[in-house]
Amino acid sequence: MAEPEVEAAWRAEFKRIGENQLRDALNSGAGIADEPKRQAAFRWLGDEAAERRLREEKTYHYVRWTFCCRYRCRDRRPYRCRFNFLY
Quick check: 82 pLDDT over 60? Predict the structure, then answer.
């Protein structure tokens, strides 16, 4: 592993490049020749994938929760039958 300052600079560079372009560069073989930087790129891609997975899971649970609450609460409104044409 490289120095923390150097790896932080690499991570900033990876973030600027973007996940898709970095992955393409690593898979093509012509991207990064320096082995420590290449390993840091793989670690960064793994970290980004884990963050994205967590973010998507939280979003899924939030959407599911709001949908279930909305669905369950719709029949508990006493004025629903009077304003049925609005629904």
Answer: no
The length of the chain, given as a count of residues: 87
CA–CA gap between residue 2 and residue 32 (Å, rounded) = 15
Measure the CA–CA gap between 70 and 72, rounded to whole angstroms.
Answer: 6
- Measure the CA–CA gap between 53 and 25, rounded to whole angstroms: 22
Distances (CA, A) of 47 to 1, 3, 28, 58: 16, 18, 21, 17
Q: Is 17 helix (H, G, I), strand (E, B) or coil?
A: helix
- Sequence-distant (6+) residues with CB within 8 A of 15 are none
Q: How far is C-alpha 71 from the geometric centre of its chain's CA atoms?
A: 28
pTM of the model: 0.69
